[in-house]
Amino acid sequence: MRHLWSFLAGLVVAPVTWVLITLGQDGSGSTIDRWVEIKASSTANLIEPAVYLGVAGILLGLLGTLRFSPLGALVAGLLLVTPYVGMFIAPFTVRDWIPDGWKALGDPLPLRQPVENGTLFLIGVLLLMAAFSAQRWRRWPASPAEAELTSADKPAENTFALSDWPPSGARNEQDTTPPT
Protein backbone atom coordinates (compact mmCIF):
# COMPACT_ATOMS: atom_id res chain seq x y z
CA MET A 1 0.00 0.00 0.00
CA ARG A 2 2.90 2.36 0.72
CA HIS A 3 4.10 1.96 -2.89
CA LEU A 4 0.64 2.84 -4.24
CA TRP A 5 0.46 6.08 -2.24
CA SER A 6 4.00 6.97 -3.22
CA PHE A 7 3.20 6.29 -6.89
CA LEU A 8 0.15 8.56 -6.71
CA ALA A 9 2.19 11.25 -4.95
CA GLY A 10 4.75 11.11 -7.76
CA LEU A 11 2.00 11.47 -10.37
CA VAL A 12 0.66 14.57 -8.61
CA VAL A 13 3.93 16.20 -7.55
CA ALA A 14 5.59 16.13 -11.00
CA PRO A 15 3.09 18.36 -12.86
CA VAL A 16 2.48 20.60 -9.83
CA THR A 17 6.22 21.09 -9.49
CA TRP A 18 6.54 21.85 -13.21
CA VAL A 19 3.93 24.62 -12.87
CA LEU A 20 5.48 26.02 -9.67
CA ILE A 21 8.98 26.07 -11.17
CA THR A 22 7.63 27.77 -14.29
CA LEU A 23 5.87 30.45 -12.23
CA GLY A 24 8.96 30.97 -10.07
CA GLN A 25 11.46 31.15 -12.93
CA ASP A 26 9.29 33.40 -15.08
CA GLY A 27 8.46 35.67 -12.14
CA SER A 28 12.10 35.96 -11.06
CA GLY A 29 13.32 36.55 -14.59
CA SER A 30 10.75 39.21 -15.45
CA THR A 31 11.24 40.95 -12.09
CA ILE A 32 15.00 41.18 -12.49
CA ASP A 33 14.69 42.24 -16.14
CA ARG A 34 12.36 45.03 -15.01
CA TRP A 35 14.85 46.12 -12.34
CA VAL A 36 17.60 46.36 -14.96
CA GLU A 37 15.29 48.32 -17.24
CA ILE A 38 14.32 50.94 -14.63
CA LYS A 39 17.67 50.84 -12.79
CA ALA A 40 15.98 50.37 -9.42
CA SER A 41 15.00 47.37 -7.36
CA SER A 42 12.46 46.36 -4.78
CA THR A 43 13.19 42.97 -3.27
CA ALA A 44 9.55 42.63 -2.22
CA ASN A 45 8.82 41.86 -5.88
CA LEU A 46 10.77 38.62 -5.54
CA ILE A 47 8.61 37.25 -2.71
CA GLU A 48 5.95 35.69 -4.95
CA PRO A 49 8.41 33.87 -7.28
CA ALA A 50 10.44 32.78 -4.26
CA VAL A 51 7.34 31.26 -2.66
CA TYR A 52 6.59 29.31 -5.86
CA LEU A 53 10.14 28.00 -6.01
CA GLY A 54 10.22 27.28 -2.28
CA VAL A 55 7.01 25.25 -2.38
CA ALA A 56 8.33 23.33 -5.38
CA GLY A 57 11.54 22.64 -3.46
CA ILE A 58 9.63 21.42 -0.42
CA LEU A 59 7.48 19.08 -2.52
CA LEU A 60 10.49 17.69 -4.33
CA GLY A 61 12.48 17.40 -1.12
CA LEU A 62 9.73 15.46 0.60
CA LEU A 63 9.26 13.17 -2.36
CA GLY A 64 12.98 12.61 -2.77
CA THR A 65 13.96 12.07 0.84
CA LEU A 66 11.09 10.46 2.71
CA ARG A 67 11.74 6.77 3.15
CA PHE A 68 8.24 5.33 2.91
CA SER A 69 8.66 4.27 -0.74
CA PRO A 70 11.01 5.31 -3.56
CA LEU A 71 8.38 4.68 -6.23
CA GLY A 72 7.08 8.26 -6.05
CA ALA A 73 10.54 9.71 -6.64
CA LEU A 74 11.04 7.26 -9.51
CA VAL A 75 7.74 8.15 -11.19
CA ALA A 76 8.17 11.91 -10.73
CA GLY A 77 11.78 11.71 -11.92
CA LEU A 78 10.77 9.85 -15.07
CA LEU A 79 7.93 12.29 -15.76
CA LEU A 80 10.23 15.29 -15.38
CA VAL A 81 13.09 13.82 -17.44
CA THR A 82 10.90 12.65 -20.34
CA PRO A 83 10.25 16.02 -22.08
CA TYR A 84 13.95 16.88 -22.16
CA VAL A 85 14.92 13.43 -23.43
CA GLY A 86 12.20 13.84 -26.05
CA MET A 87 14.01 16.96 -27.26
CA PHE A 88 16.86 14.68 -28.42
CA ILE A 89 14.48 12.54 -30.47
CA ALA A 90 11.90 14.96 -31.88
CA PRO A 91 12.53 18.46 -30.53
CA PHE A 92 9.89 20.32 -32.53
CA THR A 93 7.19 17.76 -31.85
CA VAL A 94 7.89 17.77 -28.12
CA ARG A 95 7.98 21.56 -28.07
CA ASP A 96 4.63 21.71 -29.86
CA TRP A 97 3.09 19.25 -27.37
CA ILE A 98 3.90 21.54 -24.46
CA PRO A 99 1.05 24.05 -24.07
CA ASP A 100 1.81 27.71 -24.62
CA GLY A 101 -0.13 30.83 -23.68
CA TRP A 102 -1.67 29.50 -20.48
CA LYS A 103 -2.12 31.64 -17.39
CA ALA A 104 -2.09 30.63 -13.74
CA LEU A 105 -3.15 32.97 -10.94
CA GLY A 106 -3.12 35.84 -13.43
CA ASP A 107 0.51 35.26 -14.39
CA PRO A 108 1.74 33.93 -17.74
CA LEU A 109 2.68 30.25 -17.61
CA PRO A 110 5.46 29.55 -20.14
CA LEU A 111 5.67 25.78 -19.54
CA ARG A 112 8.35 25.42 -22.22
CA GLN A 113 10.88 27.48 -20.24
CA PRO A 114 11.96 24.81 -17.68
CA VAL A 115 12.18 22.21 -20.43
CA GLU A 116 14.24 24.39 -22.76
CA ASN A 117 16.67 25.55 -20.07
CA GLY A 118 17.11 22.04 -18.64
CA THR A 119 15.71 22.66 -15.16
CA LEU A 120 13.20 19.81 -15.38
CA PHE A 121 15.89 17.42 -16.57
CA LEU A 122 18.17 18.35 -13.67
CA ILE A 123 15.42 17.90 -11.08
CA GLY A 124 14.24 14.66 -12.69
CA VAL A 125 17.73 13.18 -12.56
CA LEU A 126 18.04 14.16 -8.89
CA LEU A 127 14.79 12.36 -8.11
CA LEU A 128 15.91 9.29 -10.06
CA MET A 129 19.13 9.16 -8.06
CA ALA A 130 17.13 9.46 -4.84
CA ALA A 131 14.95 6.56 -5.96
CA PHE A 132 17.91 4.30 -6.64
CA SER A 133 19.38 4.66 -3.17
CA ALA A 134 19.56 1.12 -1.76
CA GLN A 135 18.42 2.29 1.68
CA ARG A 136 15.08 3.50 0.34
CA TRP A 137 13.95 0.08 -0.86
CA ARG A 138 14.40 -1.56 2.53
CA ARG A 139 11.59 -1.85 5.03
CA TRP A 140 11.76 0.11 8.23
CA PRO A 141 13.03 -2.05 11.06
CA ALA A 142 10.23 -3.32 13.26
CA SER A 143 10.27 -2.13 16.83
CA PRO A 144 11.45 -4.89 19.15
CA ALA A 145 8.76 -6.51 21.25
CA GLU A 146 8.84 -5.64 24.91
CA ALA A 147 10.61 -8.40 26.80
CA GLU A 148 8.90 -9.69 29.91
CA LEU A 149 10.98 -9.41 33.06
CA THR A 150 11.72 -12.65 34.83
CA SER A 151 12.52 -12.94 38.50
CA ALA A 152 16.26 -12.91 37.75
CA ASP A 153 15.88 -9.64 35.82
CA LYS A 154 14.03 -7.77 38.54
CA PRO A 155 16.06 -5.08 40.28
CA ALA A 156 16.93 -5.54 43.91
CA GLU A 157 14.60 -3.72 46.26
CA ASN A 158 16.09 -1.23 48.70
CA THR A 159 14.25 -1.70 52.00
CA PHE A 160 16.40 0.45 54.26
CA ALA A 161 15.07 3.43 56.15
CA LEU A 162 16.82 6.62 57.12
CA SER A 163 17.07 5.34 60.69
CA ASP A 164 19.19 2.38 59.52
CA TRP A 165 22.37 4.45 59.42
CA PRO A 166 25.06 3.42 61.93
CA PRO A 167 25.66 5.74 64.89
CA SER A 168 28.21 8.47 64.32
CA GLY A 169 30.74 7.11 66.84
CA ALA A 170 30.86 3.62 65.33
CA ARG A 171 32.92 4.51 62.27
CA ASN A 172 35.32 1.75 61.49
CA GLU A 173 37.11 2.49 58.27
CA GLN A 174 39.72 -0.11 57.49
CA ASP A 175 41.59 1.86 54.82
CA THR A 176 42.56 4.83 56.97
CA THR A 177 45.09 5.04 59.75
CA PRO A 178 44.15 6.69 63.03
CA PRO A 179 45.45 10.24 63.48
CA THR A 180 48.56 10.54 65.72
UniProtKB/TrEMBL annotation:
Residues 147-180 are annotated as: Disordered. Keywords: Membrane, Transmembrane, Transmembrane helix. The chain crosses the membrane at residues 46-66, 73-94, 114-134. This is Uncharacterized protein. It comes from Micromonospora sicca. The lineage of its organism: Bacteria, Bacillati, Actinomycetota, Actinomycetes, Micromonosporales.
